[in-house]
Design goal:
heterodimer; A: Cytochrome Bc1 Complex, Chain D, domain 2; Cytochrome Bc1 Complex, Chain D, domain 2; 2 domains; disordered N terminus; B: mainly beta; 11-stranded mixed β-sheet; 3 helices; globular
Chain lengths: 346, 256
C-alpha cells in the first residue's frame, strides 16, 4: 500500500515539476518555427509517434547540437551531419557513393536521405534498426563510421559545459543518460518531415502540373507506384531491384533476418527529394536519374530474390522517361533543406 | 496546476503516513488493500558442482573441450510467481542483468509480493520481444551495458566469452540474441521448487537460492563444440545454445 501511494505521490511530484506547456507558441504551429510533429493531411499515421517523447524546443535543440557534434566520433572529426548534409537532402552529397568514416574509412552503403523517418517501419537500408530512438547507436559505434562506444560518447557529452546547459534546458537537470540523448536525437530527426514539394501543392490545389509533369505522373502511377506508392513514395518494403551484384557482395536485409528469401533485398527508398540526394541506390552506383531509369528499362539482372514486378524490366519509351523525370522533379521539397531549424549548429 | 498538484500531493502524503490497514487478500479479484512483502533471490553461477571462477579455472564441457570463462552475463526478465490459490504475481518492469563480474547483480529483491504461499515461478532468460523494439530504455536495458546489438538492433540476451585451445584463435565469443523469426532465442525458464514453496509473510523476507550451471549451455539438446562455435551471434547457432541454456537455472533452496 505504502509503495503504491509512494508511486502516486512521486508521479504527482513529477507532473507538478514539469514545465508548463506554454513553451510551444500555438501561433507558430505548422510554420517553420513550430516544434510540433507534423502529420500532413491524407498521410498514414507515423510508425514513431512521439508517445513518451514529447517534442519541446529544448529537447529538439539538444538533438540538433548532438546531430552536428564531432565529439561523437573517435577522433572528433565527424558528426552525423558530416554524412547527412542538409543541403544534399541530409545525404553525403553527390561525390560520395558510400559513407565516409573516421580515418578515411569507406562504408559499403550510400548515406540514406533523412526525411519522413517517423513513417519507416524499419530504419536503415537493411532495416536493422526497429525504433528511431536507437538509430544513432549504429553509426556512432560502427568502426568504419564514428567508431566510438555509446558509453564513451555519453562521457564526453557529460564532461562538456555546453551540454550541461543543453541537458538542463531539455530535461530539468544536467544528468546525461543514454535515454535522454537518444530521445533528443529522435526529436530532431523525427521533425524532418518533407511535405512541401510542388507535388504536395498540386495535391492541395495550390499549384498545377505542366503537361509533361502530368504525363509523367501517369507513367509513375502505371509503372512505379506499386513499390513507390503515394504519398510517401515508398512502401518501405525490402526488395531486390535487380542491380548486378557489387564487389561487396552485400546481401542486405539477409544480414538482419538470416532468411534466404531476404538475400539482396534492400529497403525501397522514397522518390521524394531525388533532386538533392544523388547518387542513387543502396551503394550509390548511379549518379543520375537517367542511369536509374535505364537500369529499370534494360539493366535488371536476374539475381536471386529479384522482385517479380521487375522481371523483364520496365518498358519505358524516351518520351515516358522524359516525362517521368519532369514529374520526379515535382517531388523536390526546397523548404525542408533550407529550413533554419535543421541548420548546422555548434 | 502546480498549486493543485501540491495540494493533492499533500493529501496523498498524509494518507500514506497512516498505518496500512490489515486486510488480507483472499482472492485475486479483491480490489481492496493487499498486504505485501519482498522476496529475495540469490544466484550462484556454477560449472557443474563448482562455483564459476573467471579466467583462473579451466573446465570441460559435454564435447570434452577444455575451456575457461572470461565473461558471463545474461538477462532475467518478466518474473512471475504463482500462488497456491492460482493467483499469479507479475513483477512490473522486471528486467535484471546478471553479471558474474559484479557480485551486486547476483542478488536481487522483488518488492510488493502479496502475502501467501507461492508454488512456482517463471521468467524469460533474455528480454521479451516488445522491449527489443521499444526505443531508448533505462536501467538494466540501457544500451550502455554492452548487451545491445547496434547493427541488427535488439538485446544480446546472454554472453559467454573465454579461452579454448580447440577454437581457431584460442578463444570463443558466444553472444546469444534474436527475438523474432526462425532463430528466435527467447526462452522461458520455470525452475522447480520441488516440495518446497515460497512463504511470503509480513514479518520475514524469504530467500530463494538459485544456481546457474554453465555446463547446461553446452548440451541438451545440442552438444556445442567450441571449435565450431567460437564466434556466435544471431542465427541458428545462437538458437541452439538458447534451447540448451533454457534449463541452466535451478532452485537449490528456499529459506522461509
Amino acid at each position: 500500500m505504502k509503495g503504491i501511494l509512494k508511486i502516486i505521490s512521486l508521479s504527482l511530484l513529477f507532473v507538478s515539476c514539469k514545465k508548463d506547456p506554454e513553451i510551444i507558441n500555438p501561433a507558430t504551429i505548422g510554420s517553420e518555427n513550430s516544434y510540433e510533429p507534423v502529420v500532413p493531411a491524407g498521410w498514414p499515421n507515423p510508425v514513431y509517434d512521439f508517445t513518451g517523447n514529447t517534442v519541446t524546443y529544448d529537447g529538439f535543440t539538444l538533438g540538433r547540437y548532438l546531430f552536428y557534434e564531432p565529439m561523437l566520433s573517435l577522433d572528433s572529426t565527424i558528426s552525423c551531419g558530416s554524412c547527412h548534409m542538409q543541403v544534399f537532402g541530409f545525404t553525403n552529397g553527390p561525390s560520395h557513393a558510400t559513407s565516409h568514416g573516421v580515418n578515411g574509412l569507406l562504408g559499403k552503403r550510400n548515406s540514406p536521405a533523412l526525411f519522413n523517418l517517423t513513417w519507416h517501419t524499419k530504419i536503415m537500408w537493411d532495416g536493422g534498426v526497429n525504433n528511431l530512438e536507437n538509430q544513432p547507436i549504429g553509426p556512432i559505434q560502427n568502426p568504419i563510421e564514428m567508431n566510438l562506444s555509446l558509453s564513451n560518447a555519453l562521457l564526453r557529452i557529460a564532461a562538456s559545459s555546453k551540454y550541461k546547459t543543453l541537458f538542463k534546458n531539455a530535461y530539468g537537470d544536467t544528468v546525461v543518460t543514454s535515454q535522454r540523448f537518444l530521445k533528443s536525437f529522435a526529436q530532431f530527426m523525427g521533425l524532418m518531415v518533407s511535405y512541401n514539394s510542388k507535388y504536395d501543392k498540386v495535391k492541395n490545389g495550390k499549384e498545377t502540373f505542366t503537361a509533361a509533369e502530368n504525363n509523367g505522373y501517369t507513367v509513375f502511377k502505371n509503372k512505379c507506384a506499386s513499390c513507390h506508392n503515394e504519398p510517401l513514395f515508398s512502401d518501405y518494403s525490402f526488395r531486390n531491384n535487380g542491380l548486378p551484384i557489387n564487389s561487396y557482395q552485400d546481401s542486405g536485409r539477409y544480414k538482419i533476418t538470416l532468411d534466404a528469401n531476404d538475400i539482396f533485398r534492400f529497403k525501397t527508398p522514397s522518390l521524394r527529394n531525388l533532386g538533392f540526394t544523388s547518387p542513387y541506390m543502396h551503394d550509390g552506383r548511379f549518379s543520375s536519374l537517367t542511369q536509374v531509369l535505364n537500369h529499370y528499362e534494360t539493366g535488371v539482372s536476374p539475381t536471386i530474390n529479384l522482385d517479380p514486378l521487375l522481371s523483364g524490366g520496365i518498358a519505358l519509351s524516351p518520351q515516358e522517361k522524359s516525362d517521368l523525370l519532369s514529374f520526379l522533379a515535382t517531388l523536390n521539397d526546397y523548404s525542408l533543406f533550407n529550413d533554419s531549424r535543421f541548420k548546422e549548429i555548434h | 496546476m502546480r498549486k493543485l498538484s501540491v495540494i493533492v500531493l499533500f493529501l496523498v502524503l498524509a494518507v500514506s503516513c497512516k498505518k496500512d490497514p490489515i486486510t488480507q487478500s483472499t482472492n485475486n479479484n479483491d480490489t481492496g488493500f493487499v498486504q505485501t512483502n519482498s522476496v529475495d533471490f540469490q544466484i550462484t553461477n556454477m560449472v557443474g558442482s563448482m562455483p564459476l571462477a573467471l579466467n583462473t579455472q579451466t573446465y570441460i564441457n559435454e564435447n570434452l573441450d577444455t575451456f575457461s570463462v572470461s565473461l558471463f552475463k545474461y538477462y532475467i526478465s518478466n518474473i512471475k510467481l504463482k500462488r497456491d490459490d492460482g493467483y499469479e504475481f507479475v513483477e512490473p518492469e522486471s528486467y535484471r542483468l546478471i553479471k558474474q563480474n559484479d557480485s551486486t547483480s547476483l542478488s536481487f529483491s522483488i518488492p510488493n509480493v502479496p502475502l501467501g504461499n507461492y508454488i512456482s515461478m517463471e521468467f524469460i532468460i533474455g528480454v521479451d520481444s516488445l522491449r527489443n523494439c521499444s526505443g531508448a530504455q533505462t536501467g538494466a536495458l540501457d544500451p550502455i551495458h554492452d548487451m545491445f546489438w547496434d547493427w541488427a538492433q535488439g538485446y544480446i540476451f546472454a554472453k559467454m566469452e573465454g579461452s579454448c585451445n580447440a577454437s581457431p584463435f584460442g578463444n570463443f565469443f558466444q553472444h546469444i540474441g534474436g527475438f523474432t523469426g526462425q532463430w528466435n532465442t527467447i526462452v522461458k525458464s520455470s525452475p522447480s521448487f520441488g516440495t518446497n514453496l515460497i512463504q511470503v509473510v509480513s514479518n520475514k523476507v524469504p530467500k530463494v537460492m538459485m544456481k546457474t550451471d554453465i555446463l547446461e549451455w553446452f548440451k541438451n539438446p545440442s552438444t556445442i563444440d567450441l571449435a565450431g562455435y567460437s564466434s556466435v551471434a544471431i542465427g541458428k547457432k545462437a538458437h541452439e545454445i538458447a534451447l540448451n541454456y533454457a534449463d541452466m537455472i535451478s532452485v537449490t533452496a528456499i529459506v522461509n
